[in-house]
């Protein structure tokens, strides 16, 4: 039996550590082939170097890149369009080529709202959903390599209860009602990974992104938390799971949540 594999697709350097860092370590420790693809920034930039250091902690090897510009930061990818303004078909084709090259059993990205509404995260979700389907159709993007069928798509998403606590901690204001709060209702989360055994490595990976920590007030608040608070906010990684074929595949460390209704995650087909 071939070694299982997982491809994590993120918009920016630091997302791989914050949102899915523990799951990445769990997969690497379980002997899976692991890769991280980042849609913005490129070689020769400060955040690329930080990404490489982060992936060393996570056990994910060298980064894969789409090399688009981060909006408002032209030096992130000189002479390239911002990610959300580039040609959609070209972006999907580039991701299809990466999927067919790495041949992952599982692809991981954000939920439909990009976890918290960032336009680059939402855009990443959309091209990933298209690319995992298109990669299986050899008549599409025939120059991108032989067709490849991904077994399962996982979308990282915060439970509403955690989103509410995070909102109130970072904004110091009352959270909106559930209909206007990011995340997924707690009883609709498909699987979760307890990443506390890997929290030191996840934290070291996140701390590799020094320039983003200096820029982001939310990350600075996170760095000020004590160990117990940190474990509460980033010690579990929760996902929606969509199987693209019979059976699908469970990520290492993932626990299927039983909410007393459907026994298995839903499928795209």
UniProtKB/TrEMBL annotation:
A Pfam match: PIG-L
Highest taxon in the source lineage: Bacteria
GO biological process, one term: glycoside metabolic process
Record-linked InterPro entries: GlcNAc_PI_deacetylase-related (IPR003737), LmbE-like_dom_sf (IPR024078)
Keywords: Zinc
Keyword set includes Transit peptide: no
Keyword Zinc: yes
Signal peptide: none
Molecular function, one GO term: hydrolase activity, acting on carbon-nitrogen (but not peptide) bonds, in linear amides
Protein's UniProt name: 1D-myo-inositol 2-acetamido-2-deoxy-alpha-D-glucopyranoside deacetylase
Organism of derivation: Gordonia jinhuaensis
Gene that produces this protein: mshB
């Amino acid at each position: 039996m071939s070694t299982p594999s997982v491809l994590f697709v993120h918009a920016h350097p630091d997302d791989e550590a914050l949102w899915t860092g523990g799951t990445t370590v769990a997969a690497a420790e379980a002997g899976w082939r692991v890769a991280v693809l980042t849609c913005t920034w490129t070689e020769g930039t400060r955040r690329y170097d930080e990404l490489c250091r982060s992936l060393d902690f996570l056990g994910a090897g060298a980064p894969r890149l789409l090399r688009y510009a981060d909006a408002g930061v032209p030096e992130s990818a000189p002479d390239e369009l911002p990610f959300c303004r580039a040609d959609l078909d070209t972006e999907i084709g580039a991701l299809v080529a990466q999927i067919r090259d790495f041949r992952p059993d599982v692809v991981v990205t954000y939920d439909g709202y990009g976890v918290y509404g960032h336009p680059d995260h939402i855009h990443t979700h959309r091209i990933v959903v298209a690319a995992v389907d298109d990669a299986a159709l050899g008549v599409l993007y025939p120059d991108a390599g032989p067709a490849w069928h991904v077994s399962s798509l996982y979308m990282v998403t915060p439970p509403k209860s955690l989103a509410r606590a995070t909102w109130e901690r970072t904004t110091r204001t009352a959270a909106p009602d559930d209909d206007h709060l990011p995340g997924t209702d707690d009883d609709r989360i498909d699987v979760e990974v307890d990443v506390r055994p890997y929290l030191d490595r996840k934290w070291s990976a996140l701390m590799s992104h020094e320039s983003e920590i200096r820029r982001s007030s939310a990350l600075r608040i996170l760095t000020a938390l004590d160990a117990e608070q940190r474990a509460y906010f980033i010690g579990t990684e929760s996902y929606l799971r969509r199987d693209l074929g019979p059976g699908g595949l469970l990520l290492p460390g993932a626990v299927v949540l039983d909410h007393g209704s459907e026994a298995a995650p839903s499928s795209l087909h």
